Amino acid sequence: VGEQVSLKCSFKSSSPITESLTVDWTYRPLTGGQMETIFHYQSVPYPATVGKFKDRISWVGNVAKGDASVAIQSPVMSDNGTFICSVKNPPDV
User: Fold this and answer.
1) Residue 70 in contact with residue 46, Cβ under 8 Å?
2) What is the per-residue pLDDT across 58-82, written as a single tens digit (0 to 9) for each?
3) Gap between the Cα atoms of 85 and 72, Å rounded
4) Are 56 and 4 contacting, i.e. CB atoms less than 8 angstroms apart?
């Protein structure tokens, strides 16, 4: 619980980084339930417009450096859960 928490995600790709690279962050609450996409990136960030992380999640990554990290503002205990970072860089997956 605090000001901001960073969710780190780094990746390596054998293909050049292009605008077709995508990053998806998904979240499942600790209590279980559906996975939900909370962040999407393709050339520019697309933060969630609905859900518990709406207006609280921001892009802090740099795909040119293999960094797909995000930050969550004002985290609370109920945010606890599983966060998964998925990077696709066609034709490399």
Assistant:
1) no
2) 999 999 999 999 999 999 999 999 9
3) 14
4) no
Tokens 């696709």 appear where?
A: 88
Side chain identity at 85, as an amino acid letter? C
Counting Cα atoms < 13 Å in the Cβ hemisphere of 34 gives: 4
| Phi, psi for 23 (deg, rounded to 5) | -125, 130
pLDDT digits (tens, 9 = 90+) for 4-50: 999 999 999 999 999 999 999 999 999 888 999 999 999 999 998 99
pTM of the model: 0.92
CA distances from 43 to 3, 40, 73, 74 (A): 27, 10, 22, 26
Identify the H or E element spanning 51.
none
